[in-house]
Structures are given as C-alpha cells and as structure tokens.
Design a protein that fits this description.
Helices cover about 45% and strands about 15% of the residues. By secondary structure, the protein is α/β, with parallel strands linked by helices. Strands 1, 2, 3, 4, 5, 6, 7 and 8 form an eight-stranded mixed β-sheet that branches. Helix 1 (about 20-30) packs antiparallel against helix 3 and helix 1 crosses helix 10.
C-alpha cells in the first residue's frame, strides 16, 4: 500500500470534523501526507494540518471549544465578521507557499461557476473563500474574482489534490446520507432563534405550532423548508463528489445523521472519522 498520500478533504460543515479522525489514523500509522486540497470545512482542517498541527492537537482543540457559545456569536455576527476573526485567530494570515505541506483551497467563482484552487497568497483569505456558504457567509474577492464555497462545484477536490504532488490521492467524503434506520440530521432552524426579536418569534412559533398540528392530524411528518434545502444540497454534493472520484480511494465516515451545525458533537464526529479510517485500512489490508 502507498504510504504517502495527497489528501482531498471534502466539505460538510460540522461533519467535516471527521477529517480530523482520519488524520489521527494516518499519524498513528506513520503515513505521510504529501499535500492537502480542501473544500470548505476540509480547507479549515487541511490548512491547520498543513501548518504543522498534529491530529492529536487538533482533536484536543476542537473538543475543547465551547461550540454553543461560539454558535450564538456567529449567528449574531454582521457580514461574517465573527467567522473572519475566528479563521484569523486559529489559522492565521501567512502565505500558503510557506506551509509545511503543499496546500490548495478549492473555491467556486460566483460569476463563471468555475473551480478556483488557491495555492498561493493569504491563507486566511483562501480558507474563508473556500468556506463561504452562499446565503450564510459573504463571498470573498481574491484576485478580482468573487469566490464562494468550493462545495458548489467541487465537494471533494480530487483533481486539485492530484495536481499538488505526484502521489496517489486519498479522498474523504463526509456527505454520505444517513444509513437506513438512522435519524435524520438535526434541524437547522434553531440557529435562527438567536437573531429573532422575542415577541415576533413567539407569534411565529404559535403560527407554526398550528400548522404542525394540522400536519400531525394528516399524519404527515415533513422537515422544514430550510432543512429540505440543506439536505438536498448535501445529496447533490455527495453524488457530484462520487461522479468525480473515478478510481480514487475514498473514505466515507458515517456522519449523515449529524446536522450541518452540530459542532458540539465534535468528539463523536472525529471518532467516527477515525473508525471509518480504520475500516478502510483494514479493507486495504493495512
């Protein structure tokens, strides 16, 4: 088995913490990381590792963060300022070219729809651009191009990873749908509570309560519109990533039942990434 890989780490918000568990397994087995290409959350984890942060240190960091408090701050942030500051404090603004491991952040050009892989320039800016979920975080202008979340065009950046180093690519796709019988991801509507005026929120919730009762009377259980949009987006990205994978070995952690913003389940998600790595390693005869 190849003992040196270029990693393609896909997007998936909180699900992307599974990448940390995969990195833990690679570290334990002494498998070298030749290069990393990341999309969205994959770019966050990839940038930290490319800067030289070991997987064990990364796990300790993500497990220690007060995600509920951070989430409260993020939803109240104007124009994505809190996310910008968070990336700056955790990853830093140094040049991509001077990272310990070759790195590329996959983004989508909002005008042309083309994939843009940032392999040089400001690291913080590149990660923010790769993670700019449309409608949630503002686009980032880099080199005159308006860039958003790379998952819009390249959910798992296989080709980018292959171009960074002359080694085999190992991909990690965290967008696999929930297994049969597993619960659906946590609804995302609760994130909006922090920004809504309380009297208005109560009136709206009362209205929604009446409609929920009507639906229950009809014995219909439907997810909210925002949840449908998010789930559909993930399904689209998952299938797009599979189409682009070709023969690239791919690890798919079973985190489909975890919500996009369930960062407070960091330990569980990272452990699932590690389990998925071990299962893949066993299948490969390692």
């Amino acid at each position: 088995m190849t003992e040196r890989f270029s990693l393609a780490l896909g997007g998936g918000a909180a699900k992307g913490l599974a990448h940390v568990g995969v990195l833990r397994g690679l570290d334990e087995d002494g498998i070298a990381v030749a290069a990393i290409a990341g999309t969205s959350m994959g770019s966050v984890v990839g940038a930290l590792h490319a800067r030289g942060m070991p997987a064990a240190e990364m796990e300790a960091f993500f497990a220690a963060v007060n995600w509920r408090r951070l989430g409260w701050i993020m939803v109240r942030s104007v124009h994505g300022a809190a996310f910008r500051d968070l990336v700056r404090e955790t990853i830093g603004p140094g040049p991509i070219e001077k990272l310990a491991v070759p790195f590329g952040a996959a983004c989508c050009d909002l005008a042309s729809g083309e994939e843009v892989v940032l392999r040089e320039g400001n690291l913080e800016e590149a990660v923010r651009a790769s993670s700019a979920i449309p409608g949630m975080l503002p686009p980032v202008v880099v080199g005159g191009r308006t860039l958003v979340d790379g998952a819009m065009v390249t959910p798992v950046p296989h080709a980018a990873a292959a171009s960074l180093a002359g080694t085999e690519v190992l991909a990690v796709n965290v967008l696999r749908p929930p297994m049969p019988g597993r619960p659906a991801p946590t609804p995302v509507g609760h994130l909006l509570r922090a920004t809504a005026p309380i009297p208005i929120l109560r009136r709206v919730e009362a209205l929604l309560g009446r409609y929920r009762r009507r639906l229950r009377d009809r014995r219909v259980e439907l997810p909210g519109r925002l949840d449908v949009l998010m789930r559909a987006s993930h399904l689209m990205q998952y299938n797009l990533a599979r189409l682009g994978a070709g023969t690239v070995p791919t690890i798919e952690p079973l985190v489909g039942h975890i919500g996009w913003f369930d960062f407070h389940r960091a330990r569980e998600i990272m452990d699932e990434g590690y389990r998925a790595y071990r299962a893949w390693r066993s299948d490969e005869g390692g």
